[in-house]
Amino acid sequence: MKVAGRYTANTTGGTMTKADLVNDVTALGDLTRRDGEVIVETLFESIIGALKAGDKIEVRGFGSFRTRQRSSRTGRNPKTGAAVAVPAKRVPYFKPSKELRDLVNPDEAGGDSKDEMQGLDGAGHVDPHHPPAM
Fold first, then answer.
1. Are 43 and 29 in contact (CB under 8 A)?
2. Quick one: which of 12, 43, 89, 102 has the most CB atoms within 10 Å?
């Protein structure tokens, strides 16, 4: 998934908003701001519609969206401490792909390299403490 060079600095100081996303989409080519808004809004509406229908959305290299069922439970009113019945509900859930997790945490991404899986160090030598699997 190539994302380098596509993200522009946002104006909200650390939080990307829908307007920032529209700006990034508009900057990709010969698009008007309205075209960018339609694209972003259509994407969100499609995801929301699929989740409402109980479908799973899977975007390779990014992650998957689905709903999870939460059971009913007894909660507490934080102000009074009184018991409150919380009904069962479906909640949206996002699971990032391994590729996205590795892009966000590049230092941890090297843990599954081919050399390490074969018991080799970076120079191709056998590590005496972790010999190759047979």
1. no
2. 102
Give 58's contacts (C-beta < 8 A, 6+ positions apart). Answer: 64
Judging by beta carbons within 10 Å of its beta carbon (0-12, 13-18, 19+), is residue 52 exposed, middle or buried? exposed
Report the C-alpha gap between 12 and 21 in whole angstroms. 12
- Could you report the average pLDDT of every consecutive run of 10 residues in the chain (134 residues)? 51 83 92 95 96 96 96 96 96 96 84 49 57 57
Statement: the pTM of the whole predicted model exceeds 0.85: no
Residue 61's nearest CA partner among 8, 24, 97, 17 is 97
Contact of 10 with 20, CB cutoff 8 Å: yes
C-alpha–C-alpha distance, residues 12 and 6, integer Å: 18
Q: What is the DSSP string of 46-82?
A: HHHHHHHTT--EEETTTEEEEEEEE--EEEE-TTT--
